[in-house]
Amino acid sequence: MSAVSGKFDVRDMAEVKDFIGIKVKRDRKASTITLSNPGHTAALLQAFGMEMATPNKTTMASGVKLAKTGKDLLPAGARYAAPVGSLLYLSTMTRPDISFAVGVLSRFMSCPEQDNMRAAKGVLRYLRGTTRLGVAYGSSDPMQGYVDVDWAGDVDGRRSTTGFICTVNGASIAWASNRHSTAATSIAEAEYVAAAMATKEALWLRTLLGVLGVDGQAVPMGEDIQSCLALIYNPEATGRTKHVDVAYHMVRDYQTLKDVAFYFLLSAKRPADGLTKPLPSPAFTAFRDEIGVGPALVGADTAQW
């Protein structure tokens, strides 16, 4: 509190326990703090009759690719937008582990099909078994960024999906799973576009942390494609990249200015992988651990929910 009040005009209203629906749990002995939405999650499951459903181990089965077929449409009046909208809210607050699946589901709002509804219920089943998970901060690690892309993974338009995540103190503070607005002609190009998107977020967070008194060093950015790193470190245009929009070349400038520092990260260790595609259960669990999603309620607090 003193660190914030020393820079801003604030009012001390005692230790926060709830904030706009987010439950805050502190363990001062372990020096950890967790943020979760157990109440919202429980209400969501009850609202859609999934409070007694059999839990899933992942948000979406590995290898699943939803597409717009125009067949087997949901009947008029079927509730699809409501659960997906609620899931979207939860995914942006304290549950980065469901971001990819919810992002895919949101692409079918205008004309949902039976497969889309089954997939949405699959995410609810996953939440049924992970109601008390949240983002758990507990280390002294500085900000770190990770970026990944699923090249041409969108069945309908062959567009790629970017996944990036920024962590501080061992858990996520910003994340995104977004489909590209245009199709990329190579995985290097797709990764390059993703790197630019992640760089913009990292720069904003770096500025914010600087205002709060955190040393603004270069943000390490993990990237697993060597050809993308070659594009970032080599400012020369080639015949294969001259069509790439100038907006994405800003990543080179900030790399040169040492505001970000891209480095090679082995594919097996990329935390952003779960934001670009469905993963098998062991890989999904590892992804969840790497981005700091863990149990948020223990002991007496559990009884409140």
Q: Counting H and I runs of at least 4 residues, what is the number of helices?
A: 9
The domain count comes to 2
Largest sheet: 5 strands, antiparallel
Order of strands, widest sheet: 1-2-3-4-10
Task: Explain how this protein is built.
The chain is of the alpha+beta class. It folds into two domains: 126 residues, no CATH class; 135 residues, Nucleotidyltransferase, domain 5. The chain contains nine helices and ten strands. The strands form two sheets. Strands 1-2-3-4-10 form a five-stranded antiparallel sheet. The protein has a five-stranded mixed sheet with strand order 7-6-5-8-9. A hairpin with a 4-residue loop joins strand 2 and strand 3. Helix 3 runs antiparallel to helix 4 and helix 6 crosses helix 7. It is globular and about 55 Å long. The C terminus is likely disordered.
Task: Please specify the SSE layout and strand pairing.
Blueprint: H1 2-5, E1 18-19, E2 22-27, E3 32-36, H2 38-47, H3 81-93, H4 99-105, H5 114-129, E4 133-137, E5 144-150, E6 161-168, E7 171-179, H6 187-211, E8 219-223, H7 226-233, H8 250-256, E9 260-264, H9 281-290, E10 293-295
Parallel strand pairs: 5-8, 8-9
Antiparallel strand pairs: 1-2, 2-3, 3-4, 4-10, 5-6, 6-7
Helix pairs in contact: 3-4, 6-7
